[in-house]
Write a structure and sequence with these properties.
23% strand; single chain; 27% helix; 7 helices; four-stranded antiparallel beta sheet; 278 residues
């Protein structure tokens, strides 16, 4: 922007190469692993931490604890989901463990970082810079009025949740959502559902698939299995997932008794919705 304003300001102080530096990735899933591959192509040493043991890609090295990663990394990038366990995952204590002069990147969820603690660390120079693309409270539409604790902090890049804002990404999202809806309608699969149990049962030939949504309380699965026993129904596969409020059952049964079992399951007091596929 300075050159656009006619200002020539060539400096090297505070400018560093990423080659040879250590990148710490918190959350080594689909995105974290891709970041690791890209970082290695820039000559970075990559370390990562995930609550689930993951085999490394390339020369990445796993850390036993989050604290170990924070103490070793020159750059820390976050790629974890929004969950109770990840709220303020990076807080005052964790920021204090980071190297003086290190950098923090958050492109995961706005609730993952204690932003007031990060602002204090930036203003006193413990953290040399930050890039944040996600916020706990984001405006519903474009326009003025956005306020945030990191506004005005030194060497801080703030972007309006644009991680997926490309023509290609939006097209891919549209295709992914459409494919997920087709799998739900045709197979009862609910992988990546936000507020529903995530299930996907493999296809079994010569079966009917029964889907049941029910109130999540003790004894429902027992009652459903009792129905299978009374109807002499052969169950090929059964998968149950629950949230605090509801349960979702996907079960493949032999065709000759599927109508009767579906009817009886629908009549259970806890049943909310039952349908049969295939």
């Amino acid at each position: 922007m300075e050159l656009h304003r006619g200002q020539w300001n060539k400096v090297s102080k505070g400018c560093w190469e990423v080659r040879g530096k250590t990148l710490g990735i918190v959350g080594y899933g689909h995105i974290g692993t891709q970041v690791a591959v890209l970082a290695e192509s820039f000559g970075m040493h990559v370390i990562y931490y995930d609550i689930i043991p993951k085999l490394p890609l390339g020369n990445s090295q796993s850390c036993e604890t989050l604290e170990e990663l924070l103490e070793a990394a020159d750059f820390v990038t976050l790629h974890v989901p929004k969950a109770v366990e990840t709220v303020n995952l990076i807080g005052e204590k964790q920021i204090a463990l980071m190297k003086k002069g290190s950098y923090l990147i958050n492109a995961s969820r706005g609730t993952v970082v204690d932003l007031k603690a990060l602002a204090r660390a930036l203003n006193r120079g413990h953290i040399a810079g930050a890039a944040v693309d996600v916020f706990e409270k984001e405006p519903e539409k474009n326009g003025p009025g956005f306020q945030h604790p990191l506004q005005g902090c030194p060497n801080t890049i703030l972007t309006p949740h644009i991680g997926g804002s490309t023509v290609e990404a939006q097209a891919n999202i549209g295709e992914e959502v459409a494919a997920a809806l087709i799998k739900l309608v045709n197979h009862g699969a609910t992988i990546n559902a936000v507020n529903f149990p995530n299930l996907e049962l493999p296809y079994h030939a010569e079966c009917h698939r029964i889907l049941n949504i029910h109130v999540n309380k003790a004894g429902v699965l027992r009652d459903i299995n009792d129905i299978f026993a009374r109807c002499d129904t052969n169950v090929r596969a059964e998968l149950l997932g629950t949230t605090a409020a509801i349960g979702y059952l996907v079960v493949d049964v032999e065709k000759k008794t599927s109508d009767e079992t579906k009817k009886l399951i629908s009549e259970l007091p806890a049943s909310i919705r039952t349908r049969i596929l295939y």
